[in-house]
Amino acid sequence: MPTGQGETTTPAGVTIVDHPLVEHKLTLLRSLATPTGDFRRLAREISLLMGYEVLRDLPLQPVDIQTPMEPMIARQVLGKKLCFISILRAGDGILGGMIDLVPSARIGHIGLYRDPVSHEPIEYYFKVPEDMAERLTIVVDPMLATGHSAAAAITRLKRAGAAAIKFVCLIAAPEGVAVLRTAHPDVPIFTAALDRELDEHAYIRPGLGDAGDRLFGTK
Ligand SMILES: O=P(O)(O)OC[C@H]1O[C@H](OP(=O)(O)OP(=O)(O)O)[C@H](O)[C@@H]1O
Ligand SMILES: O=c1cc[nH]c(=O)[nH]1
Ligand SMILES: [Mg+2]
């Protein structure tokens, strides 16, 4: 039985978040037997678990607080310095878990769909916060297949001023990793799995199928 694992060594710039809970939930997510409601819940739960790793180096600011015992200078995250960008539609499936972690983060959306023949991304929406240059930007999309959607989204974000960017997905294909790393070598990739390959329709194998359709029950 194939495991679906592609390369045995992790490419530079890629972090595979391989916590047992992430792998377990990803197994359920991949399964054809998992219905829409469970798929949506699992995607959100995995993104929350991944967020813990992705946000590990989040800067902390000192804050004066009073405990029941005495005053102290503690440290807290300044959420408004963080911006999550969801690549619509499927990005919204892993946005919720991230927002649960940092509710005060700013949020932007980039609408992209893959042309069914050329597989090239077509943009239909773009709305991000102002002052992107001042924010750590986390771009989320469950699938990194050819890598063209992620690369186009990040090019667009850089044009809007974003400088410190990370990309988070659930499943990446080696082809997508190579394209994104070549286009944007400064952008680290976080994924729950690096799968074997793309098929002739540019779908990830073994993958999980069409993430958007499974999240929203559109097929
Ligand atoms: O790496 P790529 O080859 O560009 O493919 C990945 C893209 O494909 C999917 O979106 P899709 O085009 O299906 O749009 P949807 O989210 O609206 O379903 C996925 O969510 C990515 O955005
Ligand atoms: O396998 C794939 C590839 C692109 N988009 C998806 O939703 N799934
Ligand atoms: Mg889709």
What is the makeup of the main sheet?
A: 8 strands, mixed
CATH class label:
Alpha Beta
**First-to-last CA distance:** 28 Å
CATH topology: Rossmann fold
Radius of gyration: 18 Å
Number of helices: 6
Name the average pLDDT. 95
Corresponding CATH architecture = 3-Layer(aba) Sandwich
- Molecules bound to protein: 1-O-pyrophosphono-5-O-phosphono-alpha-D-ribofuranose, uracil, magnesium ion
Tell me about this structure:
The protein has one domain: Rossmann fold (3-Layer(aba) Sandwich). With 219 residues, it is of the alpha/beta class. The mean pLDDT is 95. The protein has six helices and twelve strands. Strand 11 and strand 12 (204-205) form a beta hairpin. Strands 1, 4, 5, 6, 7, 8, 9 and 10 form an eight-stranded mixed β-sheet that branches. The structure holds 1-O-pyrophosphono-5-O-phosphono-alpha-D-ribofuranose (PRP), uracil and magnesium ion (MG).
Blueprint (SSEs and pairs):
Layout: E1 14-16, H1 20-30, H2 36-54, E2 60-66, E3 71-77, E4 82-88, H3 92-101, E5 106-114, E6 121-127, E7 136-140, E8 143-144, H4 148-159, E9 164-172, H5 174-183, E10 189-194, E11 197-198, E12 204-205, H6 211-216
Parallel strand pairs: 1-10, 4-5, 4-7, 7-9, 8-9, 9-10
Antiparallel strand pairs: 2-3, 5-6, 11-12
The protein binds 1-O-pyrophosphono-5-O-phosphono-alpha-D-ribofuranose, uracil (URA) and magnesium ion.
Which terms would index this structure?
Rossmann fold, binds magnesium ion, 219 residues, allosteric enzyme, 6 helices, binds 1-O-pyrophosphono-5-O-phosphono-alpha-D-ribofuranose, two-stranded antiparallel ribbon, binds uracil, single chain, magnesium, alpha/beta
